[in-house]
Amino acid sequence: MRIQQLPLPGREGHEAILCASYLDDIAEALSRWHAQRVLLVVSTSLDTKTDIIRDIETRLGQDGDYRLSKKTGVGSHSPYHDVIDIAHRVQSDSVEAVVSIGSGSYSDACKAALMLAATLPLGFGPIEMEALVDPVTGLAGHDRLRPPTTKLICVPTSLSAGEWNMSASATNPQGKKQHFAHPQGAPTLILLDPRVAATTPSHLWLASGMRAVDHFVEGMCYPGCPAEAREVSSSGLRQMLRGLHEYCTGRQTMDEKELLRGISDCQRGSREALLPYMKWGVRFGASHAMGHQLGSLAGVQHGITSCILLPHVLRYTIDQTQTAQTQVLSIFNEALGWEETQAGDAVARFVALLGLPSTLTQVGVTDDQQIQKIAENTLSDVLAGKKNLPDVAGLKRILEMAK
Predict the structure, then answer these.
(1) What's the CATH superfamily of 201-401?
(2) How many of the other CB atoms lie within 10 Å of CB of 352?
(3) 104 CB-near residues (< 8 Å, 6+ apart)
(4) Could you read off the pLDDT of 63-121 as tens digits, one per residue?
């Protein structure tokens, strides 16, 4: 089913296809756009351990006179050097369409690269890239970036939900995550193909699902979250919890139908994760802001940062977000048949159910200097702008709780 990505002004022409067939839909889009010079930016594991990338190369080779090039592999948290590499390829080869097949690091790298390719001269480096970023907010926005001129297709293999956004994150050489955004920065087309996503290792899929759960929960806990936004987040959270449960059951029972249904439910749910932010200006909180910096500084995967931080953020902020946490708790209990009494405990139990890491020690972050640096970097994260985060002492306390 073809839909507009998000029901927002200015997003016309940015489409998504639910239950897509990536082979047919990529070929159809490139043909419709008359795009001949195409860059594939693809997951290393998909390229080396499956037939998915080989099949699309074969299909495009049979369908037309395409000039295909390929970049295999993007580092976690979209390092500047990968973003720059993609942008340089786009500029030097006059690429007309980029196809990203991979996790959120791939879609973020491609989105940022296309904004930068339209903004900076050929041959730019990390210094020029960093100069676009406001050092206070960690953001290069529409006043500093030009809109992309190259089409982008994203075939996500995770649930981080970043492909739905008009912004992208990338990690600078100092290990700090910076953000790049433009109203036209979203992909041209998103293809949600459950069979492609089914190739993702289960621990990566589940971790990215927790990232989406974090979107919903922190959005609901945002002070002044509008009722409409809260309803969207509530619905999306229920669908995501159901989908992750179906996914786990399908894997355990080797029921492919239930597995794919769970993936599809998760993908539909992930679409709702960023809508409150995009439509109503709902902001995420300390779990996201610290997660950005924990991820880029210590190399911890998105989603795992949520597993580790979100329960403790909820516990630390319970006095300020009691009403929202009560609603979050009821959704977990209803969806999973539980009788937990605290939202933080319910999230922690769900992380354990998924078999994912839940402490900083498990991901090798134990040094006090690391914790101090993560807390300090968080205060200049793009999410710190709304002043809805604890102070540095509070951030360090949450990190200490997560040890």
Answers:
(1) Dehydroquinate synthase-like - alpha domain (1.20.1090.10)
(2) 11
(3) 156, 158, 160, 161, 162, 163, 208, 211, 302
(4) 878 999 999 999 988 999 999 999 999 999 999 999 999 999 999 999 999 999 999 99
Write the CB contacts of 92 (distance below 8 Å, at least 6 apart in sequence). Answer: 122
Separation of alpha carbons 217 and 204, rounded Å = 20
> What CATH number has the domain spanning 2-195?
3.40.50.1970
State the SS3 of 95-116: CCEEEEEECHHHHHHHHHHHHH
CA angle 214, 309, 163 (to 5 degrees): 35
- Alpha helices (H) along 186-303: 194-197, 202-220, 227-253, 256-273, 275-280, 286-298
Per-residue pLDDT reduced to its tens digit, 232-271: 999 999 999 999 999 999 999 999 999 999 999 999 999 8
Work out the number of other CB atoms within 10 angstroms of the CB of residue 108.
Answer: 30
Q: For residue 269, what is the DSSP state? A: H
**CB distance 163 to 152 below 8 Å:** no
Helix (H, G, I), strand (E, B) or coil at 170: strand
Which tokens sit at 58? 């074969």
Q: Count the Cβ atoms, other than its own, within 10 Å of residue 62.
A: 9
Contacts of 228 (CB under 8 A, 6+ apart): 280
* pTM > 0.90: yes or no: no
Rounded to an integer, what distance in angstroms lies between the CA atom of residue 163 and that of residue 75? 17
Considering the chain, tell me which residue range(s) the CATH 3.40.50.1970 domain(s) occupy: 2-195
DSSP letters, 198-211, are TTS-HHHHHHHHHH
CA 75 from chain centre, in angstroms, equals 14
Q: Residue 180: how many CB atoms within 10 A of its CB?
A: 29
- Is 53 exposed, middle or buried, given 0-12, 13-18 or 19+ CB atoms closer than 10 A? buried
Residue 11 CB burial class (10 angstroms; 0-12, 13-18, ≥19): middle
Closest CA to 205 of 110, 83, 103: 103
